[in-house]
Amino acid sequence: MKMGKSMIAMLMASSALVVTPAMAQDAEQSGGIAEIVVTAQKRAENVQDVPIAISAFTSESLQERAVGSVAQLSAITPNVNLDAGTPFSGSTAVLSAYIRGIGSDDFAFNIDPGVGIYLDGVYLARTVGANQDLLDVERVEILKGPQGTLFGRNTIGGSISIVTADPGSAFKAKGDVTVGSYNLFQARGSVTVPITDGLSSALTFGIKSRDGFLKRLRYPDQRANNAPPFTAFSAAGYDSANKEGANDNWNLRGKLRWDNGGAVRATFSGDYSKDKGTSANKLIGTAEFVPGNFAGTTNLPGTAFDPTGTTGFLFAGLYNFCIGSTGAEIAARNAQALCGVSGTQFNPQFQLASVASANVDGNPANDRLPWDGRYLIANKDRSYASGNSYSNLESWGLSGIVDFDLADNIALKSITAYRELHWNAGLDADGSPLNFLQLSFTMNQWQFSQEFQLLGNAFDEKLRYVLGAYYFKEAGDLHDYVTFGEGLVQVDGPNQLSTKNYAFFGQIDYRPIDLIGITIGGRYTNERKRFEGGQQELNGFNYKLFGCADANGNIFPGGPFPLAPIPCQVGLSYPDPTNPVRVYTPGVNRKKFSDFSPKVGVQLHPSEDVMLYGSWSKGYKTGGWTTRLTNPQGNVAPDFNEEKATTWEAGIKSTLLDRHLQLNAALFSTKYRDIQLNIQIGTSPTIANAGDARIRGFELEMVAAPVDGLTINGAIGYIDAQYTSVSAGAAAVGGANPFQAGTLVGESLPKTPKWKVNLSPRYEATLGNGGSVVLLADWTYTSSAWNDTQRTLLLKRVSTDIVNASISYREPDGHWSLTAGGTNLTDKRFLTSGGSNIAAGAMFGTYNRPREWYVRFGFEF
């Protein structure tokens, strides 16, 4: 579907030019639109009174639309892209979040998110586990644009605040059971139990299991049996699955609330979750014929290295050359060591026999499958993968929120929290029976945070203020394991990281007269990071490439370098004398960051129900180090600095026709500097501050309740996000080629579709017995977008029209309900994520889920 100007004009007119950030679908207050209270400015306010572009969703609107995770909010939020999973993460619990073109599509510990995720006011520092199950939530608030003043670091694109329900003062129990496609079974429940006057508790649980939708097939060639099993290589784990895209999760949350009407209120909570959901990955393209530097016909003397990169191979071509060439042909290119034993004498447990001449030695019993396009399958839900496929995520947290009323108009809030996560995941990205791109990871992380907020008002509430202090500390490790080209490169990468952060912030809102309001705020942040990388390449590929090894897998670090009178380890810049295959610089690396993020805003209130606002704000995202390396860097640990955004925004919020119509709009322009681009250098996804961008756009949102029982939500989002500069190195690496359109000035940013349009009518009819029937539909159009920085052609996300619908019956007393629904009813399939590794010869991706149905029984008493 392509949107012409007439189509856009018709949609804008039909939605009265706007759409609200609030998904207020309950017809209340004499048929009017219900008010949604948010805490976007650290105090409870009607969403219509907050001068920020916010999309807010109530628990009922989420349940009726079968939205059970953060990523599923993407379809109904303009200029927001939320995907369950990042390239090669292998897990749907990892969140790729972009708001107005700014975000992060990675899970690595050294890379921070560009959109802040908050759970009951507690910042979740990792993208792993950020795709939270929306279990017993009261509401979700999506704040767009830099939120550095009140929310802090890494909210450069915006923030997503998940607020769970607090226990009330009366006994209450509710829950639901859902069955559906792919053997879906989900059960959720929550019970509130008063303990004494002023003290109440709540316990919430959720379980979900579902079969995968991508089926693995056995490759129909006996030569597949001659490839070494994936268990022969170093990995984080060796679990596998016959189907990918499955879920097996459970969650538990407990809350204790004290509020006896006095000056002190406190809420203590704890949550635990175990997530075994895997992403469905498949091979979508191969690149086996690209020329490269390995085993050329014009090698440097004594090596198998072709400096021209024109007569040799990359890893896929090298593997095919090794298995299909005679000993004499291999020797003619000085490739005996490259085609020889995989591994080295330093890791004998992972050494594998040579594949040299396997297909030309006259013995068909040991023939090997080549790497080429034979493993591509047109069916989006089929794959020839045979390697590891699993994800085990365990996370938990404790928090305490205490409110003190210091006076009638002054309150102090304390938020104390501790969280941990432990993650182990693996995937077979090559989609074949070979070990061409096998990845696995472990991550362990803990974090502690303490926040104080002083909230007050003065001058008959004409002046309101928030002052605060924040402390954050986290530490942990990430260990990468990657196998390329049947062991030609074997990455084993342990990394240790820690961060300390403190900040002071404040915001003043002053409304001297009814017509005018003024906002002034700012946040000062100081941050210190420590990192130690231990990345190794266990095959010693560079030693074998430069003539410092033999065909038996032995490498000679102290041997003579053929190009200079120095030892091989020195000549190849391997940095650790105690570990010849370590590529990362030994020692602890340190970085310091400081930032001041200001905000200035003006509001005009021509009437009680209309507000016009304008604001100028800044935000930043912290820097770090590149960790995914396969080549030695000498004594330099490659790092990158923070990125920054400055945004101008103007908008209007209005509630009209006796609360039967809400019309909201926002225009914005952002200058985005020092973007941390993820650029593929050889086999390594490398981070560098390699570009600047200009981002412009608008959002129009509407909620209408024209007649009793009917509510119509609508949204239009437009965004034009283009690079204004790209560094010379990034442009060279990310330039146009037969597989990619390139990272170029004037081209669009990844994960940023120009258009998103949503229309969601809901009709509730009261029956003669007092019960009701609810009919609900969601239609979302999203224009095409690039899934990666280099704009890989095969990874481009096509434009889509997604339709979801449901019908519900609610019994007269409201104690139970029955819902039947379907998602992606048109079965539109598109790539949500993926990666291209031209050096390894593989391009892979993850498709969205196919059409599915569900039936849900809910109860409440």
Automatic annotation (TrEMBL):
Location of the protein in the cell = Cell outer membrane
* One GO cellular component, as annotated: cell outer membrane
Record-linked CDD domains: ligand_gated_channel
InterPro entries named among the record's database cross-references: Beta-barrel_TonB, Beta-barrel_TonB_sf, Plug_dom, TonB-dep_rcpt-like
Biological process annotations from GO: iron ion transport
The membrane topology of this protein is: Multi-pass membrane protein
Give start and end of each TonB-dependent receptor plug domain.
47-158
According to the entry, every stretch annotated as the TonB-dependent receptor-like beta-barrel domain falls at: 363-825
Major localization listed first in the record, in broad terms: membrane
* Signal peptide per UniProt: 1-24
**Keywords, ordered alphabetically:** Cell outer membrane, Ion transport, Iron, Iron transport, Membrane, Receptor, Signal, TonB box, Transmembrane, Transmembrane beta strand, Transport
Q: Which family does it belong to?
A: Belongs to the TonB-dependent receptor family.
**Protein's UniProt name:** Iron complex outermembrane recepter protein
Q: What organism does the record attribute this protein to? A: Sphingobium xenophagum
Q: What is the lineage of its organism?
A: Bacteria, Pseudomonadati, Pseudomonadota, Alphaproteobacteria, Sphingomonadales
